[in-house]
Amino acid sequence: MDLSFLLLALGQLISPQTIAYALAALGLAVQFGFTGLLNFGQAGFMAIGGYAFAITTLRLGFPFWLAVLSTIVATTVMALILGIPTLRLRADYLAIVTIAAAEIVRYVVKTPDLIPLTGGSDGLNGSSTTFDALNPIPPGSYGFGPLRYDENDLWIIIVGWIFVLLVALLVRQLMRSPWGRVIKGIREDEDAVRSLGKNVFSYKMQSLILGGALGGLATIINIIPTSLQPDNYGTQTTFFLLTIILLGGATTVFGPLVGAIVFWVVLSLADGVLSLLISSHVLPISTVQQGPIRFIIVGVALMLIVIFRPSGLVGKKREAFFA
Amino acid sequence: MPDTTASAAQAPLIEGAPAPGVKKVDPMVVADGVQRTFGGVHAVDVDHVEIPRGAITALIGPNGAGKTTFFNLLTGFDKPNKGTWSFDGKPIGGVPAYKVARRGMIRTFQLTKALSMLSVMENMRLGAQAQPGENIARALIPGLWKPREQEITDRARDLLARFKLDTKADDFAASLSGGQRKLLEMARALMSQPKMIMLDEPMAGVNPALTQSLLHHILDLKQTGMTVLFVEHDMHVVREIADWVIVMAEGRIVAEGYPDQVMSDQAVIDAYLGSHHDTDLGDLSEEQQAELLDETQAAVEREEDGTHG
Prior knowledge:
The complex is a heterodimer of chains A (323) and B (309). By secondary structure, chain A is an all-alpha fold. Chain A is built from 14 helices and two strands, in the order αααααααββααααααα. Chain A is globular. Chain A starts with a helix and ends in a 15-residue tail after the last helix. In chain A, 48% of the residues are buried. Chain B has 309 residues and is α/β, with parallel strands linked by helices. In chain B, helix 3 (120-126) packs parallel to helix 6. Chain B contains eleven helices and ten strands. In chain B, the strands form two sheets. A six-stranded mixed beta sheet of chain B has the order 6-7-8-3-9-10, with helices on both faces. The longest helix of chain B is centred in the middle third of the chain and has 21 residues, at 142-162. Helix content of chain B is 37%, strand content 20%. The interface between A and B is medium-sized, with 30 and 39 residues. Chain A: It is a multi-pass membrane protein. Chain A: The chain crosses the membrane at residues 32-55, 62-84, 154-171, 208-225, 237-254, 261-279, 291-308.
């Protein structure tokens, strides 16, 4: 019996992918959980941010900090383009526009004519050089227990987690401030908040920009140990993120972090268990069917959460999102 | 002003005889030629109206008269097809709702808008103005907004005590009863110390015991020099607290006057056709009844001609 999947699942506890999803989910929680903005295109913000980082690094030779800044600028521009026409309208319009925009981004970067810039369907490789160059950890193999990392993997995991925790503390501070009060008020009833003299449009825009920027920065963490693949930023990613924040608690700051960890560990475990059952002929399905079945499990889990634990793992019961 | 003294309990509010659009001695709001149409129907078509400063003005009229639409227009929640209006001497036509509120004209809503998933205290704090921590950058440095937060909290506690909600301060607004939400909304509106408060059906859905307390709160507002405009269907309430009554029907101002006069005004009775009115139609003469019947039929025909909202 091959139990190596347990190690993989354990690795997901702290993997860069988990960090990236935690950060992007935190951004979505700011928009959706706290402000009530239906952003169904967080994957689009992630893609735009990732491409801004990779293109400025690879094609323009930007240093790391400037490439990160480019990511923030690019996601801000995207938030402005999507937000200016839709944030004055009813909430559903933002959902329609963002889901379409995310798909547009994905198709545009895959266009063969843009291969010199975006790498087309193959994406972009090697944008980690500027980040790895900052690595103070001497080459070698590090780890605890059976988990081993080389110096660059360890570097991104350390920086990634520190960054996520700092951002979470920052968001928590914001949400406990009068700014957060206005934001939560808008979620409850934006006309009431408007009648109290708050510029609702401006607050919604700030929230969209903040959440989008976190999505873009998440992609940097995601692509540094691997590469930038356009198809990793389809609608599926957005729905993973929604699952994560509902799992952890949409109206909490640490919920998305917990949600991301649980999500990837469980998905990885489910994958391992399924392949074990298939290889030992317990389940009458093929390995091709295995992939989709994982996502059926995710869907069922999401339904169970919304029905039985609407406030998520971390959230307080009385603050349930679907009350 | 000889014919106004009878009902005026205080200094006269108007110059001349009561009539739709009459000039006020000291107007807070002056609106001119305000029109709002929904698909050809004139929801609001007000030629001229002035709302007196420091008094309680009631806006009455049958359902669909355009009262709430007029409220929405004045407070910037809706845009008129044409028209201008000023508040406290400055034009505010076309000014967005949040800026209208900052200038001191705060409104409440017909369907209460308590922010359910915020505590009562947070609801109150949200009503305050000039909180530097509402800026995203300053929000990160508590030292910049904590002192102001303390002032706001003290004021909120005073107001909550006045409205008998102080024991609920830390509860979610969702746990309040309908009447308590009305109180909370009014208290929250007072957080910014507005010059004028506009209440859209403050008594709707409130039990009679709470109605009395709400009435006293509204009278208290006048004592502090605030201008009050409120929409109400209960004529007993209007008679009890209003200094001035404006009657709307089919988008127009059809009558204005002191409460007692307006209640006996034929145009008002016509507008209401007896509904919500404590004057029994049986008290009217036969001629008046026949007249009313004609009016009703004419109104019904008009309704059938076009789709009324």
